[in-house]
Amino acid sequence: MLLFAAALCAAPARASDDPPTLLVLGDSLSAAYGLAPEQGWVSLLGTRLGDLGLPHRVINASVSGETSAGGLARLPALLARHRPAVLLIQLGANDGLRGLDFDQIEKNLQRLIVLGREAGARILLIGIRLPPNYGAAYTDRFQAIFPAVAREEGVALVPRLLDG
Q: Distance between terminal CA atoms of the chain?
């Protein structure tokens, strides 16, 4: 949570009196699938930010089952509607679970970052680890996508959402 708060504090000031918006673009892990919405990490983040006295508005644009391509299709409209100061991207897990091409996942994540940056948002990329039944070679190659994209695009990274 502190990484998120640090990313928010570093966000540029907005010209309007509206509180800065934090937009979360993710899959079922961010959409709180199987939980009451207030129990999901996005809602808990909003509560924590309020407790810290940070005025940010948290928008959860996550959809269960979402892939990086699906997020990419939805992102332009979300950016136009919400004009976020910070964009948290938590996508790619469903791509990996479906065996989609690693290069395409990487390209989609890069494009999500570019679109967010062009809209003036600071970016936080959030990775996820696949279940071990996919095999070490596959899961290691999948896991390597997130730090590679973060490094290449110069964005902050939470390597594994569920760690800790």
A: 11
Please return the burial class of 16, using the count of CB atoms within 10 Å of its CB with bins 0-12, 13-18 and 19+. exposed
- Look at residue 12 in the predicted model and tell me its pLDDT: 53
Strands across the sheet containing 21-26:
57-60, 21-26, 86-90, 122-126, 156-158
pTM value is: 0.90
The reported pLDDT for the residue numbered 31 is: 95
- Token pair listed for 137: 């070679």
Write the DSSP assignment of 121-134 as a string of letters.
Answer: -EEEEE--PPPGGG
Spatial neighbors of 120 by CB under 8 A, at least 6 apart, are 12, 83, 85
Tokens of 129: 């680890």
Q: Do the Cβ atoms of 109 and 92 come closer than 8 Å? A: yes
Question: What backbone torsions phi and psi does residue 155 show, to the nearest 5 degrees?
Answer: -115, 160
SS3 content of the chain, % helix, strand, coil (to 5): 50, 15, 35
Q: How many helices (H) and strands (E) does the chain have?
A: 7, 5
Residues of the chain with pLDDT under 50: 1-3, 5-6, 13
